[in-house]
Amino acid sequence: MLTVFELLYDLAIEIQINPNFKHLTVHNGLGRAQVEAQLQHSITKAVMPGERIETRWHKVRIFCRNYVNRAMPFTSGDRMLEMLNTFEKNHATQEFQPAYFLAFAHDFFKDTPNSADFNAALSKLSNSEPIIALQNISYLDWVERRWLYWVNQSVHNLDAEEVLSDVNILCSNEETKIKGIGLPLAANFFADMGLSVFAKPDLHVRPIIQLLTLEEGDAKVLKSIIKICQTEDQALRSSKRFSWLSDLGGLWPRYLDRIIYLIGSDNHLLNGTRNRQAAPERRALMRKALIQNQMVSARFATY
Question: What is the pLDDT of residues 69-80, one digit of tens each?
């Protein structure tokens, strides 16, 4: 039986190699082998492009870059990257001192309108005081502890409620929520740290998963992505064509999220090179393919 992932994987390739879809993408015209190799690389790219995950400082960098990965950010991604690189160039980051970075970031953006939410978010993340709701450890200690926990999980043992619980720490729990972060950004922060158990229900992913599951809401979408992956993982592991997934532990939620994102955004190189105007038409192609192949099914629902 055809899986959702396989169907979308084939569609991503078809859009890039079929001359009839040339108007939908800036990546049309390459050979199938080259397209498929790039597609696999982009799907399985774990850590945020251009970043590492070796130290606590690297996690803070990803938090900051992820913070402006949204509609109407207070500053551009390039400006945020400039701030981070300037700090890294002028300060030792192996023994990362959150207080110094907090002061530097506040000063860097002092003349930038609407930076208050970011300042508040960074202040909360950087505070070294223990938080009762985080088992009496600091926020960054909690991030480190949860990273170590999630990096050692397997697809089949994932508990969707537990995944959602950690996301809610950042975005909705009264004592711990961080200013300016909703569920999609919170989930993406974990995913961009290389934790492929997480997925981002963004504007491309959300409508496709809602169509598949007949459910609505970001929390439902996140849990449904996990359920779809657990449902389809074994079939994909048994396919020689997808042996590359088995080598990486199976069909992780981030991989399903990423294939939908790549089709919807056309950002196949993960460097911003894309055809933005045709995004609605590409999303329509996904919907059409899923409906025609009878993929819309309550079997993926989480209620």
Answer: 988 999 999 999
- What's the predicted TM-score (pTM) here? 0.95
Nearest Cα neighbor of 6 from 301, 296, 302, 289 is: 289
Helix (H) or strand (E) holding 193: none
Report which of 69, 89, 86 is spatially closest to residue 188, judged by C-alpha positions. 69
Other C-beta atoms closer than 10 Å to the C-beta of 165 total 11
Token digits for 173? 């729990």
CA 270 to each of CA 25, 48, 245: distance values in angstroms, whole numbers, following the listed order: 14, 9, 19
Question: What residue ranges in 207-251 does DSSP mark as E strands?
Answer: none
Do you know the residue count of the chain?
303
- Of 295, 298, 283, the closest CA to residue 224 belongs to 298
Q: Which residue has the tokens 């909360």?
A: 124
Q: 51-81: buried (b, 16+ CB within 10 Å) or exposed (e) per residue?
A: bebeebbbbbbbbbbbbbbeeeebbeeeebb
pLDDT tens-digit readout, 191-208: 999 999 999 999 899 999
Decide: 164 and 227 in contact? Cβ < 8 Å: no
Instruction: Name, in order, each residue with C-beta under 8 angstroms of 124's C-beta and a sequence gap of 6 or more.
Output: 139, 178, 179
